[in-house]
Design brief:
114 residues, mainly alpha, zinc-finger, metal-binding
Length: 114
Amino acid sequence: MDGEEENVGPFRRTSARTRRMATQMASALASSDNRAQAALARLEALESDNAGVEVVDLNDDEYGSTDEEDLVLMQKKQSKNMKRKTRQGKAMEKRAARSFMDVLHDVSRILVVV
């Protein structure tokens, strides 16, 4: 707690390092309009870097796809992306959507063994 109080007011720490800036950049940022424009340009660049991430809701019934179609699409997507099975790939395969008949078949196979 005492360390936080020392950094307030006239006892605030300052850096001895000088901040270097290109002369053209310094002249460009002289006006507030140019600063705002530069800030927007940096924001757009940051957003364009993260544009590839998109959240998709798999339970959306808007398109009316069936479970079998989803399974086929998921298998096609996996076959393109994975040449060999990694631990993550195996885990994803276990968590893949299965139809009720597949689950019923697995349960009946387990009951026969026991």
